[in-house]
Amino acid sequence: MAVAVRLGRFLPLGRSSAPAPRLPTCAAGSRGRCVPWRPRGSEVMGNPGAFKRSLLFSALSYLGFETYQVISQAAVVHAAAKVFRIEEILEQADYLYESGETEKLYQLLSQYKESEDAELLWRLARASRDIAQLSGTSEEEKKLLVYEALEYAKRALEKNESSFAAHKWYAICISDVGDYEGIKAKIANSYIIKEHFEKAIELNPKDATSVHLMGIWCYTFAEMPWYQRRIAKMLFAAPPSSTYEEALGYFHRAEQVDPNFYSKNLLLLGKTYLKLRNKKLAAFWLTKAKDYPAHTEEDKQVQTEAAQLLTGFSDKN
């Protein structure tokens, strides 16, 4: 950059920074007659030192212009290569995510943890959280990963506040951190979480996951234990609250946006109908959750829980 600035001082305005001198076509004689003008040697050369400096200035101007062009072209090529490289990494990351390769995905993205790209950072937050959720992850590692994920999501949001995914994963990660910071912090954070889920939906109404997560928020506060409600009322003038009906609306909306997109949405539709004492529809959605193809460890957990709830139906009947 310093080189470019210095060279800029010698850049010509076109090919020369000063207008070319106009040469006279005739000169006045002793009697005022116009006689052909013949330049003398001193007039041709003028000041020899000035002439040399003029040549040097012209050479430097041309050199400066050419160097500036080379530097500018190199910067453009470098920027394009950088964008292409990031796009390539994101494509690899999305492929690994869709394939359920959680650990490989985390290893790939961890190489770029110092990145300033919001798209890469929120994916890294997601990958960190997914590793934390694995059954083989120790409690100590899980806590570190949860806080690490929050940091990545926060940075992603700082880099691009118009990214619906950054809002979504920031809210998810704040929720995870609440498990380590007590009931007061968890309730206080719930307002922030809701705000970011709503913003994610506003930015992208077609993202079924954001709509689903808003449903989870409603479901969580609909089933909040009485003692937590009491604490919430003591701490906040207007504690967060919701209903199962509101949660159900979001789960159905998510399903309309993208049918069968997520095993847990199917499970929660079944569980919400159970809370509303509609066993017929509960059984319908729980069966769909049980039969959902298991691509991830979470899918397997959903299958198990759905099967257990359905078995509970049979036992009662």
> How would you write the strand order of the largest sheet?
1-2
Order of helices and strands: HEEHHHHHHHHHHHHH
Secondary structure: number of strands: 2
Low-confidence stretches: 1-46, 74-81
Biggest sheet record:
2 strands, antiparallel
**Rough outline:** globular
Rounded to the nearest angstrom, the distance between the terminal CA atoms is: 78 Å
Which structural class do you get from the secondary structure elements? Answer: mainly alpha
Subunit structure: Interacts with microtubules.
GO molecular function, one term: microtubule binding
Protein name: Regulator of microtubule dynamics protein 1
Keywords: Cytoplasm, Cytoskeleton, Microtubule, Repeat, Signal, TPR repeat
What characteristics describe this protein?
single chain, 317 residues, mainly alpha, two-stranded antiparallel sheet, 73% helix, disordered N terminus
Topology:
Layout: H1 2-8, E1 26-28, E2 34-36, H2 41-45, H3 48-98, H4 102-110, H5 118-133, H6 139-159, H7 164-178, H8 182-203, H9 208-222, H10 226-235, H11 244-257, H12 263-275, H13 279-290, H14 297-316
Antiparallel strand pairs: 1-2
Helix pairs in contact: 3-4, 3-5, 4-5, 5-6, 5-7, 6-7, 7-8, 8-9, 9-11, 11-12, 12-13, 12-14, 13-14
Subcellular location: Cytoplasm, Cytoskeleton, Spindle pole
GO cellular component, one term: mitochondrion
Pfam family, one: RMD1-3
